[in-house]
Design a protein that fits this description.
Helix content is about 55%, strand content about 10%. The protein has 16 helices and seven strands. The strands form two sheets. A five-stranded mixed β-sheet has the order 3-4-7-5-6. It has a two-stranded antiparallel sheet with strand order 1-2. α8 links the parallel β5 and β6. α1 packs parallel to α3. The longest helix has 23 residues. The protein is globular and about 70 Å long. The two termini are about 35 Å apart. About 35% of the residues are buried.
């Protein structure tokens, strides 16, 4: 039986942080939080919850406050170190560029579906929110959550480097609030709404001189931990990611055939092949890339025998592993251990 790819999740600690800020603001009661979270109180703080629970909370907050700008208002109350492991990594960044890179790499720690894109043009850095949600999502709750995420990005230079640098321009989802006074200290004076692609524009020159002493060893340790936890999250957006998630859970001992994966995903084998081609890949390429990545990690670790590595990569015998390793890395397996 194939291992299922679980539903899209958000971090329990993110829910707790937003709930605590909303309680302090008088927007919700403890009873409200218990009703939304259900049995969450019995789970450890490291647990993850379906993203719908988080969106339900944001929907209630937008309704109680009267607008999605509540996302920015609550972000002002939550320091970076309250954002879990992602916050710890960001807090030790030596430059704004490094902090933004870390957000782009590890944002899925807080919300599995969230993506922060970066685009550098002449003199400007654009950060875009690229999260995807299923149809039927409550719009006000989604907008409040996006504004919360962008608010934390907008506030990073000031919080980490003690500067007044704000975005030159912000593009936010939804309609503008009647009162802009709470948004401008977060996003600056130039804010556009009804944005199809929400994001922030920073002047690179304003960020370039901001830095602090690097904490290389500590940051390397934190980034390693963050990368480990992100890798453990099954991606569930693109079809190729869903195929990869199934393979990742079922590779040892021999990967399932494409027909079995297609049946597991609820589509025909031919439709799956066409969809992977449209995404610029193929089943064979996904499988080969996954085996190469797993081989590199297991060989570098050095604790497992070549026979065990052969099994974990889903090969029938060690000779096939040896040929693959030579093709990938230009050297036999034993020389890479």
């Amino acid at each position: 039986m194939l291992t299922l790819c679980p539903g899209v999740t958000a971090a329990r600690e993110l829910f707790d942080t937003i709930s605590a800020a909303a309680l302090r603001a008088g927007l919700v009661s403890r009873s409200d939080v218990r009703t939304i979270s259900g049995a969450l109180a019995d789970q450890p703080v490291s647990a993850r919850l379906n993203e719908r629970v988080l969106l339900h909370l944001w929907s209630l907050l937008a309704l109680r406050h009267g607008g999605s700008d509540i996302g920015a208002i609550l972000a002002l109350q939550v320091p970076v170190d309250k954002l879990g492991l992602l916050g710890e990594v960001i807090s030790h960044a030596a430059t704004p560029a490094e902090a933004f890179d870390q957000v782009a790499r590890f944002s899925r720690l807080l919300n599995q579906r969230a993506r922060i894109g970066q685009t550098r043009t002449a003199g400007h850095l654009r950060l875009s929110y690229e999260g995807r949600l299923q149809a039927g999502t409550d719009q006000a709750g989604l907008e409040a959550g996006i504004i919360w995420s962008l608010a934390h990005l907008a506030l990073l230079p000031g919080r980490l480097f003690g500067t007044g640098v704000l975005p030159e321009r912000a593009t936010l989802p939804g309609s503008p609030p009647t009162d802009m006074t709470m948004l401008q200290p977060v996003f600056g004076p130039s804010i556009d709404f009804e944005a199809a692609q929400p994001g922030l524009h920073f002047a690179i020159a304003a960020l370039r001189g901001l830095h602090k002493a690097p904490e290389t060893r500590l940051l390397s340790h934190l980034e390693g931990a963050a990368a480990h936890y992100v890798a453990a999250l099954p991606p569930c957006d693109r079809l190729c990611d869903r195929v990869r998630a199934v393979l990742d859970a079922n590779l040892a001992g021999g990967p399932p055939p494409l027909a079995t994966i297609a049946k597991h995903l609820g589509i025909s084998q031919r439709s799956l092949q066409r969809a992977l081609t449209a995404e610029g890949t193929s089943f064979a390429r996904i499988l080969d890339d996954m085996r190469r990545e797993r081989a590199k990690a297991l060989l570098a670790d050095g604790r497992q025998s070549l026979g065990a590595i052969t099994y974990h990569l889903g090969y029938a015998d060690q000779a096939i592993l040896s040929r693959a390793v030579r093709r990938w890395f230009g050297a036999p397996p034993r020389s890479l251990r």
